[in-house]
Amino acid sequence: MSEEVFDVIVVGAGNAAMCAALSAREHGASVLVLERAPEDEHGGNSTFTAGGMRFAYSGLDDLKKVMPDLTEDEIARTDFGTYTEEQFFEDMGRVTEYRTDPEMADLLVGTSLDTMVWMRSKGVKFQPIYGRQAFQVEGKFKFWGGMTVETWGGGPGLVEALHARAQQDGIDVRHNARAMSLITEDDGVKGVVAKINGRTTRLFASSVVLASGGFQANTEWRSRYLGPNWELAKVRGTRFNTGDGIRMALEAGAMPWGHWSGCHAVGWDRNAPPFGDLAVGDGFQKHSYPFGIMVNAHGERFIDEGADFRNYTYAKYGRVILNQPQQFAWQIFDQKVTHLLRDEYRIKQVTKVEAATLEELATKLDGVNAEAFLAEVAAYNAAITKDVDFNPNVKDGRRTRGLKVNKSNWANTLADGPFVAYQVTCGVTFTFGGLRVTADAQVVDTEGDPMPNLFAAGELVGGLFYFNYAGGTGLMAGAVFGRTAGRSAALSALENKPARSKVS
Ligand SMILES: Cc1cc2nc3c(=O)[nH]c(=O)nc-3n(C[C@H](O)[C@H](O)[C@H](O)COP(=O)(O)OP(=O)(O)OC[C@H]3O[C@@H](n4cnc5c(N)ncnc54)[C@H](O)[C@@H]3O)c2cc1C
Questions:
Q1: Among protein residues, the one whose CA lies closest to atom 10 of ligand 1
Q2: Fewer beta carbons within 10 Å, N or C terminal of the chain?
Q3: Residue 31 and residue 443: Cα distance in Å, rounded?
């Protein structure tokens, strides 16, 4: 066993970890980053994202702080609107059924814009998400659903920008380096035992930041904590987030916190591989269901596809699909809306059928009761209130009435062939349960005391998300709390700051 000493060790190399590492370095600490993955798979779930980020902004001036390269032409043809702190805070409450930790949500919301500007200062570039988050109506794009900005180059661009800056700042990043346990003494955490290229190594540090993701890629923990059939879900992102950081902290006495049986899960191609594929990224997702219908093996609709904008429903509908017979659904669209389908519907690796008529389509929907399906579509078509115009940019109220499961917005008849259908199952994104942290991102133990020298950020922190999630919050939360964790870890290491007071 060899031994090395650092001010701060960061476990993980995704968005939260790299924000923590850059922040710790900025505050003068020497930093070691341990990444379990080999270099060509580094960056965790963050690499798999499209880089969509949710933050509060009160108008164009705020957006220009984040995107100084916005052109006059882009400004002229876009209604960016506003997304105020009040709206963001209310969205956090609403989607989590008002269980989100208000202090954490307040920190997330209140420092989101400032953190975006900080990321920009670290070399991360942003651009508007045309197409996915704004449709062109009468020559103008209008943003909806609180998410306006994505990183240049999506998730891979984000991770590469953060790693490039880390290299520039002299941060030591080691790949094939799996943290296995924390080194602890009575007065706190002293370092990490890691397996680096298969060799066990003891690494000492004044502070440790855990940012190694949730437990979604751990089949056994999924079925243990999320419940029956979750072992059948596909993992949308990295295969490396198996809950190591959570386990290590719990073994050292940390308090479990948040929604341990909850997770973010979406409709995901039925034939996608068991873990994410970086060549496809988030392309296996199928998120245009608000413009069509979804049916199960019984040929029945089972959910209000138009309950809200995609950003506010997609993360909870994966669970609903998992609960259908044989864990699948078909999404069906007609020609009135196919031009609105997101780019992920046009990838090569897609489970898709097409038919000129509904009768023909019924024979092609693998696993579906054809007769029941045709009756379901007829009833759906007849139930649509047609006196309201269809408008994809607003919750248009064009709905069905009188059905067992009504559709609240964007209800169009399925009548204009050719019809297209896409088969989906449940893809799990990340788990909601994890560790409890203070406002300084310090891990809390089972007695309610901050654990000396131990900090955490990202997916493995519990308390922010329950039941559901608003699109673009994961990266934002990772950045906000990662930056905080890095600063706290550095200050604790360098100034030997006393631990904060006990939490209630
Ligand atoms: C397909 C997909 C699309 C998404 N799209 C978006 C989006 O557009 N916007 C958004 O906000 N969110 C999105 N998300 C969610 C987002 O990815 C996560 O919320 C966020 O990336 C989590 O960041 P993190 O740093 O906590 O975890 P990760 O980015 O997953 O990083 C965890 C890191 O820990 C490493 N690790 C694990 N175990 C160990 C160990 N024992 N030792 C050392 N290292 C370890 C991993 O290899 C990885 O580097 C998406 C997720 C997926 C899967």
A1: 472
A2: C
A3: 19
Q: Which of 49, 53, 158 to mutate to test the pocket of ligand 1 (most atoms within 8 A of CB)?
A: 49
Residue 15 CA to ligand 1 centre (angstroms)? 7
Phi and psi torsions of 376, nearest 5°: -65, -45
Determine if ligand 1 sits within 6 Å of the CB of residue 34.
yes
| 351: helix, strand or coil | coil
Q: What is the mean pLDDT of residues 228-240?
A: 98
Q: Which atom of ligand 1 is found nearest the CA of 248?
A: 41
Q: Is 128 in the pocket of ligand 1 (CB under 6 A)?
A: no
Which pairing describes strands 419-431 and 352-355: parallel, antiparallel, or unpaired?
A: antiparallel
Instruction: Please give the Cα distance from 267 to 390 (Å, whole number).
Output: 24
In terms of phi and psi (left: phi > 0; alpha: psi -120 to 50; beta: otherwise), the region of 178 is beta
Strands (E), 156-249: 172-174, 177-185, 188-196, 199-210, 234-235
CA-nearest residue for atom 14, ligand 1, is 49
| Tokens, residue 263 | 């997770």
Distance 419 CA to ligand 1 centre (A): 36
Query: 3-state class of 352 per DSSP?
Result: strand
What digits encode the pLDDT tens for the residues 372-424? 999 999 999 999 998 999 999 899 999 999 999 999 999 999 999 999 999 99
- Give 185's contacts (C-beta < 8 A, 6+ positions apart): none
